[in-house]
Amino acid sequence: MNEVILLFLGHLTSKSDVYSFGVVLLEILTGRRSIDKNRPGGEQNLVAWARPRLADKRKLRQLVDPRLELNYSIKGVQRVAQLAYYCLSRDPKSRPSMDDVVKGLTPLLDLDDLARLSFHSQQSHQARNRLQNVRIQKCEGYHGVAGKKDGR
């Protein structure tokens, strides 16, 4: 049953609390409100917009609050997204207990793998590859002895 309906009927359970905590995790991860009428139609409901992205590691970067400017742990984001995904399960029986959520979050306090370091490392690697490709292209234009260029 829809969590909003349960709220209005007064049928809240510990699994309803877990769902709500999943929404809070999403708000922290994205920097967005759970309902934002100022966003485009498909983005107004945070859970509906984020749920498909939570399940795909390649799309996680789309979720992260851009104001963080890569100052976050990649592993931390992956773990928080995974926890939020489980907390927001449509089937309340599939949701973790709050104890399990806390156990999942606790190790994140020790993470130190900042995205900007990974991003800069990736950029450096890409720049090295581009430089190497330029060198190869220059070398391919030269053949024979004494480095004479084709067509000369």
Automatic annotation (TrEMBL):
SUPFAM superfamilies noted in UniProt: Protein kinase-like (PK-like)
PROSITE patterns per record: PROTEIN_KINASE_DOM
UniProt-listed InterPro entries: Kinase-like_dom_sf, Plant_Ser_Thr_Prot_Kinase, Prot_kinase_dom, Ser-Thr/Tyr_kinase_cat_dom
Domain of life: Eukaryota
Transmembrane spans: none
GO molecular function term, any single one: ATP binding
Domain Protein kinase: start-end pairs: 1-109
Gene3D superfamilies: Transferase(Phosphotransferase) domain 1 (1.10.510.10)
Protein known as: Protein kinase domain-containing protein
Species, as recorded: Amborella trichopoda
Taxonomic lineage: Eukaryota, Viridiplantae, Streptophyta, Embryophyta, Tracheophyta
